Amino acid sequence: MASKWIVLVFSMLWCLSAASRLTGETETDVDEGHGHDWDIFDINKEAGLDLLEGDIVIDETDSRNTILGEQYRWPQTVPYYLKDSLDINAKGVILKAFEQYRLKTCINFVPWKGEENYISVFKGTGCYSSVGNRQVGKQKLSIGRNCDRLATVEHEFLHALGFWHEQSRADRDDYVNIMWDRIEEGKDHNFLIHGESVSSALNVPYDYGSVMHYSKTAFNIGSEPSIITKIPSFMDVIGQRMEFSDSDLLKLNRLYNCTTSSTFLDSCSFEKENICGMIQGPVGIAQWEHRHSVAGGPNTDYTNMGQCDGKGYFMHFSTVKGNHGDQAHLESRLFYPKRGSQCLQFYLHNSGGADDQLNVWVREYDKANPKGKLRLIQKIDTGGIRDSWELYHVTLDVKMKFRVKFEGLKGTGASTGGLSLDDINLSETTCPQHIWRIRDFTRLLETTPTGVNIYSPRFLSPSGYSFMVSVYINGRSSPGSMAIYFHLTSGPKDDSLTWPCPWHQATMALMDQNPDIRQRMSNHRMITTNPNKLSSDGNDFYWDNPRKVGSLVTGSDGSQFYRGPGTGTSSYLAHSRLKSRNFIKGDDAIFLLGLEDVSALLETQPLPRSAVHQSKKSAVIPPSQETTNTSTNTSTVVMAVSMSLAAVMFVVAMTEVLLKKLH
Fold this sequence. Notes:
By secondary structure, this protein is α+β, with helices and mostly antiparallel strands. Helices cover about 15% and strands about 25% of the residues. Helix 1 (about 1-20) packs antiparallel against helix 9. It is globular, with a radius of gyration of 28 Å. This is Metalloendopeptidase.
């Protein structure tokens, strides 16, 4: 009998240890198990906030009917200050959201240098903002727990720039029905309409796809929708939190009189005969041709993939005939950079010889070189991939007036086609680090069981950390939503790296394959490696060396390596949204992945010398919001240790009880 009790005690201890032991199969959810409908308004409700329309702060001395005047517009350059209370991951997400504003609008967020009015971003108990420039000096905007998503940040800053929610516009009732009997008691005011004296639609049609639209379940009772779209197919469109919609951008650019974007330079899908102002090489040598299809391939462009009759063009350099070394040149129009770095993105199709080559050059102009001086940037290696449109990113580092030159070069091998170019984008942004293309994605979506994942190849970050991601195409435990998780893996530079991995932010973006980078609504998720994060038993650091806290696994190529525990979300993207836009194109899906060092964000943002943090007038916001959550990292560690101690104390107590029974 005694031996049975002893076995039971040690079984309990082993189970507790096994349940909390880190392995390469461990995957934690940053969304804390909430479903794909978990939104800004759910976050704020759980936090106990009762704000206008769920996330809008109203100034005590202002009427809500005073938002149309020019005095409520910010300048195109908007000062901001990031408070230390913000989580490091949130800071990184905010900076990425600012880059989207710069790419797609003329709004440029800049660190506060002492301007009279600025936006102070902090971690409150929720996500909220005022509407417009309230002329109060320090204007507060909260990015609290679970608010660190790209579209959520874009949403709150659109409020600050002067936007109300889409379904509150004056013509709302022409497009949606509000189910008043399904709304929580006391929340009816969140569905009131703003008249044209309060808000302007800027002559833009009602937008079901706006990032500012309520979801169908906003403030609802039970499971029935509180909003029903008059066009049924838009029921699963409203409430998207992926990115700005086209109409969001149109309205913002109209409101702020934007004529160009801050960091966008060019986009070309070659649909028009003027080929976007590009210049062919000298007559007498091989030429790039404007083609609809090519006998040897491709038989369609990448922009339209043959879906639109009479449309779909690309540029093609034939290598069927000619001699080894024959060249064809295609130069862009002139560009005038503002930054010192650019990202060139394009699709390349090789139906020619295995050693046919594409070279990317820049022609730079200065006083010493008024006709331009050529500089080779990169030789494109197709990696043996042929007869497929492949995505490439090339980083440029140009600081003066320039053109981009594409040089096609015929190799020695036999050719039935040549090189083709399509969907070129040039912007003054940072290129994605890595591309993971999942081929035959449509079939995988139809056949992959729930709970089954696929792993990406291993990638290496600029800092030397090796990583991979896992994707559950049909969810971890229930279908209807994709899940995604980030894992550190063992790599060639592990011995020289700092462990646990300190403050690196992983970006996992499913690319919207729209040909124009400004119109993409890609789905992003970012997570950051906190070196203080512990396993649930408090014995291991979560982001320690995978050789220590991971599992030995075998990759698809037969190589063996260690995969550490993962973190991500079980509600990455609902299938209803996955099948919208251009997430799947030519049956393929493309993930853009990266891991960057964000430890610099631990530093306090410098204060202007003469500046003092103060507001001209108060606003009705939850009390003590700027003094909460300032020790998040310490609290996380303390909580983990406390949970571990509680578990140990429980086992000890049970052991004492069992031992007493033995005696």
